[in-house]
Amino acid sequence: MNFESDTMDATAAENSKVATSWHGIVRFLHITPRAFLPMRSFPELQLIAGRGIEGDRYLIGQETGFYSHKPEEGRQVTLFEMETLEAVRRDHGIELLPEEHRRNVTVEGVPLNHLVGRRFRLGETVVEATRLSTPCRHIEEILGKAVFDPLINRSGLNCKVIAGGTLRVGDLVRPV
Amino acid sequence: MAKPIKTVSTVVSRIEALGNDTKRLTLVDQDDWELPPFKPGAHIDVYLEPGLVRTYSLCNEPEDNHRYVIAVKREHNGRGGSTFLHERVRVGDQIGVSIPRGGIALNANEMNVFVAGGIGVTPLISVVRHLERQGRTNYVLHWMSRGRPVLPDMIGPAIEAGRVCLYDTTSQAKPSIADIVKECADFGFAACCGPVPMLEAFEEAVEAWPDERKHIEMFTPPKRIVQSDVPPYQVILKVSKKSATVAPDIGLLGTLEAMGVEVPVSCGGGICGACRTRWIEGPPIHRDRVLSPAERQSELIVCVGDCAGPKLVLDL
User: Fold this and answer.
1) Residues A88 and A151: beta-carbon distance below 8 Å
2) How far is the alpha carbon of B167 from chain A, nearest alpha carbon, in Å?
3) Interface contact flag, A141 B269, Cβ < 8 Å
């Protein structure tokens, strides 16, 4: 994560005009068309405002995901931190790969847990974070890896698409 | 509300009659997407129709990840699964299957000895294909059949290379399983899948071996283990006036689902609270991480819950 704080003079500090920001990068993009099927990596994805990702199992109107019987507007696109993959390896000795966490966008340098309720840019698109993702036993069943406990409180972010467009690996992630 | 998706959706892309009352079926995704991964020798549950679920070993190898191949011998006096597959299933049919389970843990460096009887060879076909694809030759398959074996085309190179010993038990004496496994008695690994007498002979031959060096593949695999270490108890649903016994290998949630109760499960691990249910009589065992001590006095997260006594009454 890159925090950029402007140098402040005393006056600025007194006025509390602290400009703190962050930016990150899209490292991986994944979708799958149906529940249980492996996630497949793509160099770019098409995000559709108000619906989700073209070809993904949670695209609104064509839901075929494991949780599609529980419709949720804020599940259009899901994000996950690269840093969590590193933490799970370091703290639990489990090799969890970007295609295995079953979120769509793997980002680096983005404080996902702080973005609930906020809008931010994913490349040329804009998304709004609706809630933190929660882990589920379903992922353990699919992977055969005991990742449920290690992912509690760091299982990613659910978002809806505000402004659609093409999202590419390497795109910047930044506040609106 | 739409129903939860509980199976992998597949399409029957090919059916081959192999003779000897055996058919080979190939299942694929409708868009030829990769299917969930599996280990050599794994098996899947095949959902044929409501109430008719059968387990079959996969014959193909994990690297061949766009299809599931199963071979089914028709059992005329069986319970109906093989007859359904032989008579009712057609190319193009949609069939739900489970995520693959199980598999055979091989010895990477020492000798692996496999013993198969008839159609029981299916998981070992998967293993042999996997080893051949990896260029590994530290194995031998002893395969006994009555008459012509039905799946040799899947392991042609292994047969040609002399790594498969075929026995036609209609014209040859059955080999001694004790003699077969003797070659790796002090090291290596042995696995067996076949009819009960063969499994018993194998079990006897490897009885003294450590567990990690032997594998017995049943035609009917044991049920998936769920987290429950309590003795069986009775669950009573006060509102719907139903009751059932909760067995450790099924668990409370599995029992409720089998009773036809719609429980709104989400995480399945006791952290989301979706399946919180009022309890009336217990005491229940709480394993969740969402309820407060006060809430536990009247509620239970059933996806991880159990009962400490003989009877659990739920407000369902």
Assistant:
1) yes
2) 37
3) no
Nearest to B116 by CA among B203, B206, B220, B194: B194
Answer whether B305's CB lies under 8 Å from B287's CB: yes
The CA distance from B311 to B18, in Å, is 52
Of B302, B166, B34, B221, nearest to A99 by C-alpha is: B34
The first and second tokens of residue B217, run together, are 């593949």
Q: For domain B233-314, give the CATH number.
A: 3.10.20.30
Classify A23-175 by CATH class: mainly beta
Locate tokens 């359904």: which residue? Answer: B84
Looking at residues A11-15, what average pLDDT do you find?
A: 50
What is the DSSP secondary-structure string of A42-111?
A: -SEEEEETTTEETTSTT-TTS--STTTTS--GGGSEEEEEHHHHHHHHHHH-----TTTS--SEEEES--
Q: Closest by alpha carbon to B247, among B268, B266, B219, B223? A: B223
Query: Are the C-beta atoms of residues A86 and A56 closer than 8 Å to each other?
Result: no
Strand intervals (E) in B128-228 = 139-145, 164-168, 189-193, 214-217
> Are B4 and A64 within 8 A, CB to CB?
no
Q: From the options 2.40.30.10, 3.40.50.720, 2.40.50.140, 3.30.1070.10, give the CATH code of B8-97.
A: 2.40.30.10
A152 chain-B contacts, CB cut-off 8 A: 271, 289
Domain ranges in chain A are 23-175
Torsion angles phi and psi, residue A57, rounded to 5: -70, -15
The answer, for A36 touching chain B at a CB cutoff of 8 Å, is: yes
CATH of B112-217, one of 3.40.30.10, 3.40.50.80, 3.40.50.10800, 3.40.50.1100: 3.40.50.80
pTM to 2 decimal places: 0.80
A142 touches chain B (CB under 8 A): yes
Condensed to tens digits (0 to 9), the pLDDT of residues B24-43 reads 999 999 999 999 999 999 98
User: Residue A33 is nearest to which of B31, B99, B266, comparing CB atoms?
Assistant: B31
Is pLDDT of B1 > 80? no
Q: Which helix (H) or strand (E) holds B180?
A: helix B177-182
Show the tokens assigned to A175: 């506040």
pLDDT digits (tens, 9 = 90+) for B186-237: 899 999 999 989 999 999 999 999 988 999 887 654 444 455 678 999 999 9
- B152 Cα to chain A: minimum distance (Å): 30
Looking up tokens 């899901």 gives A78
The domain spans of chain B are 8-97, 112-217, 233-314
- In degrees, rounded to 5, the angle at the alpha carbon of residue A160 between the alpha carbons of residues A81 and A24 is 30
Question: pLDDT, tens digit, for every residue of A70-103?
Answer: 888 999 999 999 999 999 999 999 999 999 999 9
Q: Does A90 touch chain B (CB under 8 A)?
A: no
